[in-house]
Amino acid sequence: MIDEIPPQVWKLQASQAPGAGTPNRIEHGRIENFEALFFYDEVGLLRGLLKYFDRDIHESEGSGDGLVAHAGEIFVIVDPDYRRRGIGTRLLREATCTWNIDLTNQGFTPQGVALVEKFRSNQITNMSLDKIEVP
């Protein structure tokens, strides 16, 4: 398990993304040559982002922070003042519809574990609801 990400990391990550976009929308884009999703709030301000690594990343690449990411890995971060509002879940849902993501092959913080557990729980609930026959 990975340690919690300090709140100041949000500012660093957010500075690499478009700060404003279409209100109440997830937009596709790129950060550092990687695919990304950006969540914008009701006034169009960036409140969450998800990076998707389509290839292995080695220490000599990227921002030079020593992070190694494996192909198929994701990185999700939400503005600390906007956490626990479903933003991470929405980003994760969009990502799994867009890319082939194996959630069993990821490094997670404790918050990331909670996010994936909630996401999986919602998937099971939605699948169960789909099976209900409506007269």
Q: So, CATH architecture? A: 3-Layer(aba) Sandwich
Strand residues, percent: 15-25%
> What number is the mean pLDDT?
78
Low-confidence stretches: 125-135
What is the CATH topology classification name? Aminopeptidase
Question: What would you call the structural class?
Answer: alpha+beta
- The total of helices stands at 3
Q: State the separation between the terminal residues, measured CA to CA.
A: 47 Å
Largest sheet, if any?
A: 4 strands, antiparallel
| Total domains | 1
User: Which radius of gyration do the C-alpha atoms yield?
Assistant: 16 Å
The best one-word shape is: globular
CATH class: Alpha Beta
Strand order of the largest sheet: 1-2-3-4
What multimeric state do the chains show? Answer: single chain
Helix content: 25-40%
Q: How many strand segments? A: 4
Order of helices and strands: HEEEEHH
